[in-house]
């Protein structure tokens, strides 16, 4: 019952019905706390506590959900992470990540990761028309490849009626993604939380749900409940 109530709370959050969602969250947490007290199964108690700790609710209705991705965990493709926040009213997206660079970066296939993210936006159910990317220039010889790759993505998106605006900053450090329905997602490693595939024909090369991840933390907020800088 607690899990079903929390599921309903998330649905209400996505629909921007925040007061109703807060009531559901509180009811769901109360039910899970009752389950913790009632069960003697330590594994179940641990799962219930983990579920409760995922969600932090403040007395004034602020929302903060945290997801911790463990080292080598799978099942965290972009669709899994972002889909419930990409409602039909989403038409504009902001991506701030200093490392959308060439595919030869030691940490992975960074331009390809951004391309995969854009593909997810194009597929919907959202109706994205504009994507804003703020990143930093690649160093040295990688800059030409970075620019070439970004321009190719820009042109390809244009064929789908989506405008990609690209800006560069030498001082950007934070990584965050914002949707114009108010949701904001901060990922410790940005879009590059996947490990490099073992080979071009290994499982997980194409399907990110099957790709092992680096350990990272994902924090999800709604801008209605965050301080404006």
Automatic annotation (TrEMBL):
Coiled coil: none annotated. GO terms for cellular component: midbody. It comes from the Eukaryota. Residues 75-222 form the MITD1 C-terminal phospholipase D-like domain. Signal peptide: none annotated. GO terms for biological process: midbody abscission. Residues 2-55 form the MIT domain. CDD domains: MIT_C (cd02685). PANTHER family: MIT DOMAIN-CONTAINING PROTEIN 1. This is MITD1 protein. It comes from Serilophus lunatus (silver-breasted broadbill).
């Amino acid at each position: 019952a607690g899990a079903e109530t929390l599921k309903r709370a998330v649905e209400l959050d996505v629909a921007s019905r925040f007061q109703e969602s807060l009531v559901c969250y509180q009811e769901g947490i109360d039910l899970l706390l009752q389950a913790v007290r009632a069960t003697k199964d330590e594994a179940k108690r641990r799962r219930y506590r983990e579920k409760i700790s995922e969600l932090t609710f403040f007395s004034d209705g602020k929302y903060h959900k945290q997801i911790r991705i463990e080292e080598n965990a799978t099942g965290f493709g972009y669709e899994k992470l972002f889909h419930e926040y990409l409602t039909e009213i989403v038409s504009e997206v902001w991506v701030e990540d200093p490392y959308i660079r060439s595919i030869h970066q030691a940490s992975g296939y960074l331009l390809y990761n951004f391309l995969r993210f854009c593909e997810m936006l194009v597929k919907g159910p959202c109706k994205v028309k504009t994507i804003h990317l703020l990143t930093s220039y690649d160093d040295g010889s990688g800059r030409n490849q970075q620019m070439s790759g970004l321009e190719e993505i820009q042109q390809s998106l244009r064929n789908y009626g989506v405008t990609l605006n690209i800006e560069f900053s030498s001082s950007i450090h934070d990584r965050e993604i914002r949707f114009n329905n108010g949701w904001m997602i901060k990922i410790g490693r940005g879009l590059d939380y996947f490990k490099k595939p073992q080979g071009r024909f290994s499982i997980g090369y194409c399907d990110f749900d099957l790709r092992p991840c680096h350990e990272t933390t994902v924090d999800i907020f709604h801008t209605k409940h965050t301080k404006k800088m």
